[in-house]
Each structure stands twice: as C-alpha cells, then as structure tokens.
C-alpha cells in the first residue's frame, strides 16, 4: 500500500539515481496535486538530512496539507454537515500517517519555489495555492525565490491541464 513515507523514500531513490547520471545538470522537483506534498517532503528531507538544497521545486495545483485538501475536495463537501465528518474522514488521514504538510515544509526550504495554479481548479481551489504561497513567502529570507503564477479561468486549464499551456516553458524559465 502506498504511504507518505514510502512515496518520499521512492522519490529520494529516484533523485539519487538521476543525480548519479546527470552530471552538473539541475534536477527540479515538479509535483502535481498529491505529488506536490511528495515534492516538498523530498526537498525538505534533502535539505535537513543531507544538507543538499534542491535546485528548484515547482508545485502545480498544490494544497497546504492533505487534511485541508481533503476538506475542500469536491466529493467530501456533501459530507461536511454530517456529524463525525472530521473524525471519520479527516482525522483518519492522520491516524494513517498521511499529512503531506507542504505548508510546514515550505517554511524551511531555501531553494527556488514556483507555484502554478489555475483559477478554475475545481479539485484543489486556488485559495489553497495562494495560502501556500503566502506561507512560503513569509518564511523565505530571499522573497525573490518564491513565485506564484495563476492561470485565468478563461484558459480552461482546471486541475489537470496547466502542462498543456504553450507558454509554460517560458514561464518556468
């Protein structure tokens, strides 16, 4: 069964593999949706446990932490009024060691951080990406290393199609 710890360990192993073969090339952690929690976990582990700063982290359609993301996930909204919603759903994530605390991770990162979020994201609302940006921006000493790019609703990129934007390579550079 996938776990937060297991996903983080897997990406660290992938990083080691890529680093051993990449020469002096930069390695950027790019996470989408759930993967944004994994990307910040790995960048923080590298920094704190190995003293290695990630070259950069790009978070596409991110959230603050898995508890807050689950509370805003469309299917869970119908259960909000019912007694026990928080205990049965949200607290069960913590009981299973699922936190994906990007909001805590970005407070200690020092590498360049780029957040990408579409205004019409119906899975993880833009305000979660903005909240994560504000947390990082407040914590970073070098504010120029933290950026957010939002994509207007008229582009129709939603949760899954930011990578289809033809301007993305230029924006990321």
DSSP helical segment count: 7
The mean pLDDT is 92
β-sheet strand percentage: 5-15%
Sheet with most strands: 4 strands, parallel
Q: What low-confidence regions span 5 or more consecutive residues with pLDDT below 50?
A: none
Terminal Cα span: 36 Å
Reading the helices and strands in chain order gives HEHEHHHEHEH
Number of domains: 1
Give the number of DSSP strands: 4
| 3D shape | globular
Instruction: Supply Rg.
Output: 16 Å
The H-level CATH homologous superfamily, spelled out, is Alpha/Beta hydrolase fold, catalytic domain
As for the CATH topology, it is: Rossmann fold
What is the highest CATH level, the class?
Alpha Beta
SSE-based structural type: alpha/beta
* Helix coverage percent: 40-55%
CATH architecture descriptor name: 3-Layer(aba) Sandwich
Strand order, sheet with most strands: 1-2-3-4
GO molecular function: monoacylglycerol lipase activity; phosphatidylcholine lysophospholipase activity
Organism: Aegotheles bennettii
Protein name: ABD12 lipase
What does this structure look like?
The structure is a single chain. By secondary structure, the chain is of the alpha/beta class. The protein has a single domain (4-12, 26-172), classed as Rossmann fold. It contains seven helices and four strands; from the N terminus they run αβαβαααβαβα. The protein has helices spanning 4-21, 34-50, 66-72, 85-95, 102-105, 126-139, 168-172, and strands at residues 28-32, 56-60, 113-118, 146-151. A four-stranded parallel sheet has the order 1-2-3-4, with helices on one face. Helix 2 links the parallel strand 1 and strand 2 (56-60). Helix 1 (4-21) packs across helix 2 (34-50) and helix 3 packs antiparallel against helix 4 (85-95). It starts with a helix and ends with a helix. The model has no long low-confidence stretch (mean pLDDT 92).
């Amino acid at each position: 069964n996938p776990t937060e710890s297991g996903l983080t360990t897997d990406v660290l192993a992938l990083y080691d593999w890529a680093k051993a073969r990449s020469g002096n090339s930069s390695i950027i952690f790019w996470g989408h949706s759930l993967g944004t929690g994994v990307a910040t976990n790995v960048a923080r582990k590298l920094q704190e446990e190995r003293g290695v700063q990630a070259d950069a982290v790009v978070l596409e359609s991110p959230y603050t932490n898995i508890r807050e993301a689950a509370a805003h996930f469309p299917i869970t909204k119908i259960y909000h009024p019912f007694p026990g919603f928080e205990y049965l759903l949200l607290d069960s994530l913590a009981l299973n060691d699922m936190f994906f605390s990007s909001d805590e991770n970005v407070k200690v990162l020092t590498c360049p951080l780029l957040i990408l979020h579409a205004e019409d994201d119906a899975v993880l609302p833009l305000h979660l990406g903005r909240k994560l940006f504000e947390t990082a921006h407040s914590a970073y000493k070098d504010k120029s290393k933290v950026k957010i790019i939002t994509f207007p609703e008229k582009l129709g990129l939603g949760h899954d199609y930011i990578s289809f934007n033809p301007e993305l390579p230029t924006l990321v550079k």
